[in-house]
Specification:
Length: about 250
């Protein structure tokens, strides 16, 4: 496959993401607080998270091992794997969702999503990258790395606060307070948006940009649904909070 064909595949995948974004304005993925009956077989929440996030880690690790990546491409691979190591092996086993289930169809669809995005990014970093040592001095690397690290930290802190809202054995929902929760309902999603925008800046290629588009297409509608759920279920929910982007959305 040549680069032109590969980029066309990325563009087609990005178009599907945009279509998905509009579709998700009207459909609520049935897991977490939005779980519904009638979506087929289920499995425990924590195992669902682990199974659906692991392919992203494994595919990037495969390309990292078998290809002769430049130092810059290798660094991008390591940043990707750091995020998905947390999502696959740490986060699922910290969440306090005992007794909660996730529809198998959600897990399978997420696996497909992660397989495609990880393959596109891993394959590019294996077959097409032409980064040099000077890439570490470019403006997009410096800005992108700062955003990636900031978003990663915001995501970790937000997840930690959400997990610790519940005492061991609790499964109900509470209003999160403090940190960026004072400004948005879903700072964990905001962190991921910033993180993958930073990654796209650093990588400066079609698959990384495509993955950011997919991240936004999934997380912005999800955040808006969370925001509406909080407002509907807590009469004392802070009215000045936005859904995902402080002061904007």
């Amino acid at each position: 496959m040549n680069l032109a064909t590969f980029n066309i595949i990325c563009l087609a995948w990005a178009i599907i993401a945009i279509i998905t974004f509009f579709f998700l304005q009207h459909v609520n993925a049935p897991y977490g607080r939005h779980i519904k009956q009638g979506w087929g077989p289920t499995l425990p929440n924590k195992w669902g998270w682990a199974f659906m996030e692991f392919p992203s880690f494994a595919i990037m690790l495969y390309f990292f091992i078998v290809s002769n990546q430049s130092a810059f491409a290798g660094m991008l691979s390591v940043l990707w794997m750091a995020h998905y190591f947390n999502r696959s092996f740490i986060f699922p086993f910290r969440i306090r969702t005992k007794g909660k289930e996730m529809p198998l169809i959600i897990v399978v669809s997420a696996i497909v999503f992660n397989l495609v995005n990880a393959w596109l990014n891993g394959y590019f970093l294996s077959a097409f990258e032409k980064y040099t040592e000077n890439s570490f001095l470019e403006w997009n690397f410096l800005a992108g790395l700062a955003l990636f690290v900031f978003g990663f930290i915001v995501n970790l802190i937000s997840d930690h606060r959400l997990i610790n809202l519940r005492h061991p054995g609790e499964t109900g929902y509470k209003i999160p307070r403090g940190f960026l929760f004072e400004y948005v309902s879903c700072p964990n999603h905001f962190g991921e948006l910033v993180q993958w925008f930073g990654f796209a800046l650093m990588a400066w290629n079609y698959p990384a940009a495509c993955f950011f588009i997919w991240t936004a297409a999934n997380l912005i509608p999800r955040s808006k649904k969370h925001h509406s759920w909080y407002r509907a279920n807590f009469t004392d929910y802070p009215r000045n909070r936005k859904a995902v982007i402080p002061g904007l959305l």
